[in-house]
Each structure stands twice: as structure tokens, then as C-alpha cells.
Predict the 3D structure of the following.
Amino acid sequence: MPKIKTNRAAAKRFKRTKSGEFKRTKAFNRHLKTAKNAKRKRNYRKPSLLSESEKKRIKRLLPYSA
């Protein structure tokens, strides 16, 4: 059997944690920040975890992540 290729787009966006969850960055943090309050912008900096349904899809794209 040949090796499975890792999806490079997914590899750049998601990192697997020690417990097997996937971390991702939050959306809506690139521009138009003047309309957003400080608390909202501060929360965009924190990483978020994927839901169970998305986790199954991402596992298939990243077969060799730890």
C-alpha cells in the first residue's frame, strides 16, 4: 500500500493536541476591527477546538498527525 498524502492546506490550519483534539484559529479577526469591541477581539486570539463532526473529517486529511 502506498503512503497517504497529508492535505497541506489542513496541515497549516489545524494542530493536534496531546489528547487528540484539534486546535484551530478563530475566524473574523483579519480586518474591520474598529467595529468590534476589545473583549471580542481578545477572544479571537485564543485557539478553539473542533467539534466532533468536524474532527472526523480533519482526521482523514491529516493521517500522520500525532
Remarks:
- The two ends are 21 Å apart (CA to CA).
- DSSP finds three helices and three strands in the chain.
- The helical segments are 8-13, 38-44, 52-61.
- The mean pLDDT is 94.
